[in-house]
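Slide 14.
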Amino acid sequence: MATFSRFAILDWSGDVLRGAGRVSAGSEAFAVPATFPRVAGEPAGATTPEELLAAAHAVCFGIALRSVLAQRGGSARRIRVTATVSAEKGGAGAQAIRLRSSHLTGVVESLTGVESAALDEIARAAEGACTISAAIRATVAISVEISSTERNPLDTGVA
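Slide 15: predicted structure.
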């Protein structure tokens, strides 16, 4: 079994509510401004921990979806995944934020090799294989929706 690690660095100045920071990947793949999550009025171009989690979940699920699709003999020209992380602010301490759910929506373009009716089961298997899903599953509800953009010649019309 191979072991690996990844890291990111946050450089923050100021207090929580009025401060700001910059988060960068150890791989140098990204470096973006970061801010404390607000209910409304996020500064343009700044990210939050919840948005970074949504990005990680979208990437993880998308890669897992590609992998499971290939294992089942299928392929797609393109897969587009949106992860929407929902959270509540307040409660135990004014700044307490608690994740409530992550909803994954996927669209498969130019699906071949498998019937479109198999996408729901493939999506469930991909969600189960996603490491980000595994990390948050115990505390956050995860839902998945998947669709194909065009009619697949393998579709028999029978679900």
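Speaker note: The radius of gyration is 19 Å.
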